[in-house]
Every structure is written in C-alpha cells, then in structure tokens.
Write a structure and sequence with these properties.
Four copies of one chain form a homotetramer. Chain A is α/β, with parallel strands linked by helices. The first copy, chain A, has eight helices and ten strands. The first copy, chain A, has a single domain (3-253), classed as TIM Barrel. Chain A has helices spanning 22-26, 43-55, 81-102, 113-121, 123-136, 149-156, 190-203, 230-243, and strands at residues 3-10, 31-35, 59-63, 106-109, 141-145, 161-166, 205-207, 213-215, 220-223, 247-248. In chain A, the strands form two sheets. A seven-stranded parallel beta barrel of chain A has the order 1-2-3-4-5-6-9, surrounded by four helices. A two-stranded antiparallel ribbon of chain A has the order 7-8. Chain A is globular. The two termini of chain A are 12 Å apart. Chain A binds chain D through residues 14-19, 40, 42, 69-72, 74, and chain D through 14-19, 40, 42, 69-72, 74.
Chain lengths: 256, 256, 256, 256
C-alpha cells in the first residue's frame, strides 16, 4: 500500500453551539464528511466547513444522519426504505447547494452515527443509502464501513466504494465498531491508534478488540474530531503513516 | 399576451400533517413551487410532490422559507445576508437532490411567506436570494413579485426573472400583497379573482385594492392551494384565461 | 360495572397544521389526553384543547411523547431512564403551566405512541414514566395499558392507576395493541368497536384478535380522534355503553 | 444598600452541545435563570442545572425564550399576545415539572434574549409575560430589566418585581442594553464591570455608555456565563460588592 485517505466528520456545530476543532483537523486529514443539518450542522456551519476544506485542499462529502439534533443522530430510528432514501438524497443535495456557492464539489457520502451503524448490518438501509447516492450523482464515492452491508450495497448499485476503518474506535468481532455505550468504544491514546492503523494495513484486515481478524481492503481511515484527543490522535497517525512511506491523499485521488 | 404561467405552492405537508390539495391543483397549474423542509415539507413530502408534478407535466421550483415550522415561515426573521444566502442555497440543493431521484429538474425558485415579503422591499434580502440561486445554477428562473426588489436583484445578478402576481391576494398601494393579518388579504371569490387577473393583464399593471396602478410585466400568476377555496378559484381563473385565448405554459416555456 | 371512563388523545395539531376533530370528540369522551409539544401540539394548541375540555366538563391529562414531530412520536427512541423521566416530567409540567392559565388541573398522564408501546413491555421505561408522574404530583392518575408493565410500575410507585383498553385498536396475544404497520391495527367499524368494548367488559379481559383472553380490570377506554371514523366510532360506543346502564364519568370520578 | 442578588443564565446547553461554565458560576451567583428548551436547554440539561443550583443553595427561575434554537432566541419573533402568554406559561410549567423531581421550586422568571429586549419596550409583550407568570403562580418574582415596560407590567399585574441590571453589558440612553450586533455590547474587563456595578448602586441609576443617568431601583445584577470572560468578571464583581459590605443573597431573600 502506497497511499491512503484520512477523513474526518466536520461541520457538526449548530447555531450558537460549537463542537470539534475543524480548523486543526483540516490540516491533518484529506477528506471531510460534512454534517448536513439533520443530526448537526446548519447552512452557515456547512458553508464555513466547505470553505475551510477548499482552502486546505481537502475533498468534501455529505455526512447524512437522522433528523434528531437532540440525540446528535446517535439514536437508531426505523424508517421505511423510501423515506430513508429521500432523507439521504435531500442531505446530499443540500450540501451540493452549499458547495456550489463555495466553488467546490461533493465527491463522497458517508453516513453518520446510528444511521451508519444500522446500515452496517441492515441490507435494506445500506441499499437505500446507495440508491440515494446513485440517484443524485453516480460518480460520488460511497464511504462505507469495511466488511459492512454498505460495501455490498454500493457495489451492487455500481457506485465507487471506499472501505473505511476508524483510527480511534475499537471493533467488535462482527466488524462493527464498539457502541459508544461501552467504555472502550473510543481510542484516546495516540500509540494505540497507530498500532491499530498499522496492524489493519499490515494484515489487510479489521482486527477486533478480541483479536479476531476480518480480511478487507481499507481505502480510508476516519479520525473523530469531536473528542478532546481527536486532533492529537489524528496527527500522530498521519505522522506514523508518512513515516511508513504511505502518501495521504484525497478520496478522489484514491484508486478504488 | 398569448401565453402565461400559473404556479402554486406545493408540498407544504409535514410528516403526519397534511395541508393543501396538491393533486387537484396539479391539474390546473403548470409550475409548482415546492416547500423544502424549513417552513414546511419533509423529504418524503417533497418527493411525492415532485413525482406528482412530473406526472402532470408541471415544472418544479424550490420554495425556500425561514426555518420556522411552528410559524409556517410567516414570521419575519432577520438574518445577515450571507446566512440568508446559505439558507436559500441549502434548500434549492435539497430539492435538487430529491428531484434527481425522480428524474426531473428544478427550474425555478420562489421564496415563501415572510421571506418573500421581506425581500419584496429589502434589497439586501432580495440580493442574497438572487445570489443563492446564481451560485447553485444560473439558469434557474427567479420567480419574483412584480414591482419588487427581487425583480431588480435578479436582473442585476443576470438571472432569468419571471414577474409574478397573485390571483387570490389583494394588493397594497406599494405593490406588496396585503398582509394575512388583514381580513381582506385573500380573495376567495372566483369572479373577483378572474377580474383581478384579467385587469392586471389588460392594464399590464398591478392594481391595488385602492385602485392604484403600478405598471409591470407579469409572467406568472400564483394560486394558493392551502385555502379551502384555492382549487375552485384557480380552476375558474384558468378557464377564464383560456377563454381569452391565452395559453397556460410551464415557466421554462415562457419567454422571459 | 356501573361506570367507566372514555378518553381520547387531543391537541395533536401543530402551528398551521390541524389534525383530529377535538370539538366533536369532547362531546363524547370524559377525559382528554393532551399532547405536550414533543410529538405534537404547541402552547397555543394546548391552551385551546384545555379550554375546550374545561368548557365540556372533560378532565385533562398530559399525553407525553418522544421529541419527534416528524414521526408523530410513533418511532421508538431508546433513551436512558433518567433522560426519559425528565422528558416526561417536563411535558407534564408544561401542560400544568398551560392549564393554570385556563383555571383547570392536570389529573392524569397517558404516554403516547411509541413511548406507550415501549413502556407496555419495558419495565425500565414504565418505571421512568411512573417516577416522573410521582415526582410532579403523586395524586395524578397513571392511565396505563391494561396488562402492561406500566400498570405494575404505577402500583409499585404508589400512583393511582387506571387500566386502559382501546375501542378502536385490535390486540395481539401478548396484550399489546397491533402495530399500525399492520392493516388490521385500527377498528373503523362502529359495530366491531361496540362488540370489542362490551366483550372486554363482560369478560373482564382483553381479548386478542386471535381470541386469547387476558384477564384484567379496565377503568377507561380510549377512542382515537385522528382517524376519519374516530368520532362516529366513539359516539356509537358511548351510546352502547349507556344503553347498558353504564355511566360515563371523568377519570377523577372513577373508583380506581 | 446592604444586600443584592447576583443572577446568571444557566442550562443553555443542548443535547451533545455544551455552552457556559454553569458549575463555576453557581459558586458566584445566588439565583439561576434556567433555559426551558425553546431557545436552548433540554429536559436533561435543565435537570442537571436545577440539581447544581440546589446543591449550591442557588434559587432557580425560568428563562423562557423564543422557540428558535438555531438563533439561540436572539432573533425577534412577532407573536400575538395570547400565543406569547401560552409560550411563557408552558416554559415556566416545564421547569416546575423538572424542579419537582429535584425537590426544589421555581421562584422567579426572567425572559431571554430577543424576548427580553422586545418586552423591554413593548407593553403588550411585557404584559403577556407578566400574565403568564401570574397565571402559573402569583408569588413568582418577575426579574425585569430596570426602567423597562416589564417593571410596569409586573407591578400592574401585582407580581413581585426585581429590577435588574447587567454587570457585563453596556447601556443605550433609552435604558436598554446595547445590541450584540455592536462591538461594545459586552463588558469583558472585570474592572469596567466593577465600576459599572458600583456606580449603578451608588447613583441608584442605570448609566448609559454615553453617561446618561436613568434613576431606578436595582435588586439584582446579571452576569453572563456564556462568554469566555464571564466567570472571571462575575467573580470580581462579587468580591467588590462584598468588599463594600453588601451581602449577596438569593432572589427570595431580597426585600422587593
């Protein structure tokens, strides 16, 4: 492996409320998944995040979530497939509307929080998301949890798919990330994050916290910006990757 | 005058709540301005309205409003120009995202309620809306109250502008519609509506309820679908126009 | 049995959106469960419903639901017990604030939609609701699905509990109502509703759609006002009960 | 003057979003005005703020605002008087519901942001707020900007009124605070805040930034917790007041 993408969730502030250190993370990552006003974000927050990305040469994607600001999109909501497809298409389009004004383009989509977790193992949800992406623009890259139903759905729908792993989340044996309800969900130690990333790359697999290996391609690693340690962990991982001679590129630059 | 457009606001239901008789109005009008989830509407409501429009050969536009579902977008909200521009661009993009899935395109934008009323006389608001449209797609038609700052802003920004009058709203001497706070705001009588439309066309002017004439082109007349009498009034006006030999066309078919 | 209560959900309009025929139902039922602004309702809608109840001699209760206007409180949301308790206490208090201005009192609480369904079988949810009621006013009656965890939780917390059945919903064998996702969830035929109510009273049991009897006291029957047939069904049931010599009283008048 | 109250706005976080340092301010002030879920706050945030107040011997009040989370209640919204009255009664009741669970009581009400500014000079708005308070509990103290229509409305309605000035906001000649749109709205310098507070007390007047004196009683001073400098400014003012031998008491302890 000679190149990889680093991405992060961005633009998750809302009105008067600020969360995350987007400006610092933009220096480290190469692709930003921007909240679209449902689980977080608003038009002004989105525009600021898109402009920041553009100014840092960072590619942008939509980060659609459930319409649940109070729960930050982290609470599962059951919708029918068509409703979900429209909800995702709406959010992608909304970010495209904002991006047009800034002079840049939406090149990937990555679901947020509970939507992402549900679509990891639910083929109907995964397919609804893939169809929403395809209906808006079939060249948009579907950033999908490695080993998930989303990877399969994206491939079935003919979308470019980037398989993703986390630098700062531990994994269950089924390949899904550990729920935030558990104390060991997040990795706050840069050295642990570096070990995880390098072992995933070396083994070409997700490795669960119990040591189970699930073979998979990985095109992009995600760093969380909303944790106090997020910037330090992401910076350390980037440095470690570059020390291995791996180039950090944007998602459109990746060979998928 | 040998052709004119009839438009109406559509897709203003929300979740469990239904308002307006979109299906009946779609048979009468030729362009639908679809609420975008801020003052009304949600992704599913929007998709249903877009599909209904497509099936009836009705062109669609975005109907952006303030983010105030409780007030149905009818309460003035003061925002700075950039925030307003982003808010409008977001809503246009969101409808484009929905429209893509239905296989149709957004060809006009018409502001809703208090946003429309404020932009009628506020050049900053009018310009912010025009810039939002232009940033997303400079071929989109700006449906602007006749005699308003929106007409001027649209022309300054180089957008195609369709000047609009209402078939079922009375006018003040300044060319703005009478506020809904007044009892004579709405026209519920089909004959009164027909007289208004034919006199506006004949005089090439807006004529206020006090008889003041304000000369202007009119490309499109708006019918309200959320009133009990809306469908009857719109149908009567359409029949009267056709009886005069005037063809009712979509906005993209109009010569602007 | 010589007396029973009839209740209905009320005040589920929102802003510009109207749902249900509260005025007609108020003539039939004796207790109104009023939405509190989370799944439906707003302060003005609530005040109007409270005033209407007062003018009709109808007792009022809070009808708390999830904060999900888009889903009308019908989508399950998982919260921790304390969050849920606060959410319910908030809504009860809010209705008390409105009721004070109208000069009446909140005398019962009945959960709405998905919250009600979840608390039917989840002791933690049922207990959180009971504790919220108790913390605000331990004399408030907990209107709880017959045979549910809510009955048990209300009794454990020392609350007055009114066991409830529906006149217009069918039942599963576990005593829970049939989900609205199924076509046979609602009873639209007045005769079927009358048969259900009289058989439940006669057998002193919930009887499922498959004929299973689950013995239980029933203090109150609920009629749905948001269905087109709701008023007719409720009126027919009330007449049938009175024809049996059963008096229809308010919840505070019931012997619990 | 031998005693005075210090109050601050609290509980203005929302869900995942945190704002203000409530824990630090609770050590300095004696009365907390707690957001009620409209412009900010949610049931869990409210419960946490109420508990923190109780544990610090701080009296609590409702801090009602417009239903505009995106604008943090800082954008004027025009409502009719009855709608406004219900909106305020709802929020007071909601906080009472939360407070009951924590074992404490709501003893004052202070409007937030744009609602407060509008009611400063609009007798209709001021009266609607006073009536809402009175309808819920006529012993609740109305914390009203000194020299405002709110003071007059509270007195007309027979409420206990506490006249308030700010330690960290500058004043216009009309006695209203300088709008946040102006750079000199906030006082960030502790020494400037101390000078303002001591001169207001010494002169028994509001003194505008241009030196205009508007004679008034002042029962309570408000410190803002949402500014980075808020805690330092509040702490310095408290120390300065105590150095003058002035006792800092809760609102219910004040002689009004």
């Amino acid at each position: 492996m000679t190149q990889i993408n680093l991405n992060s969730d961005m633009g998750e502030s809302f009105g008067r409320y600020t969360v995350g250190d987007d400006a610092a993370l933009m220096k480290i990552i190469r692709s930003a998944s921007i909240a679209c006003g449902f689980h977080a974000g608003d038009p002004t927050v989105m525009a600021n995040a898109v402009r920041l990305a553009r100014d840092n040469g960072v590619s942008i994607g939509a980060h659609p979530g459930f319409n649940d600001l109070g729960g930050f999109g982290r609470r599962p909501i059951r919708m029918n497939a068509k409703e979900l497809e429209y909800m995702v298409a709406y959010q992608i389009g909304a970010l495209q509307g904002i991006a047009a004004g800034v002079g840049t383009k939406v090149t990937h989509v990555k679901p947020h929080g509970a939507l992402n977790n549900m679509a990891h193992e639910d083929a109907e949800y995964a397919t609804a998301i893939a169809r929403a992406i395809k209906s808006v623009d079939r060249d948009i890259i579907f950033v999908a949890n490695a080993c998930s139903e989303m990877v399969l759905a994206g491939e079935r729908e003919g979308l470019p798919v980037a398989a993703e792993a986390y630098i700062d989340r531990t994994y269950e044996d089924n390949g899904n990330i550990t729920s935030r309800r558990h104390a060991d969900a997040m990795i706050h130690d840069p050295q642990q994050a570096i070990r995880q990333v390098l072992s995933f790359i070396g083994e070409q697999a997700i490795i669960s916290k119990h040591g189970k290996k699930i073979p998979t391609r990985i095109h992009t690693f995600c760093a969380h910006g909303d944790e106090a340690t997020g910037v330090a962990v992401a910076g350390a991982v980037r440095a470690a990757l570059e020390a291995q001679g791996i180039k950090i590129v944007t998602l459109p630059e990746m060979t998928l």
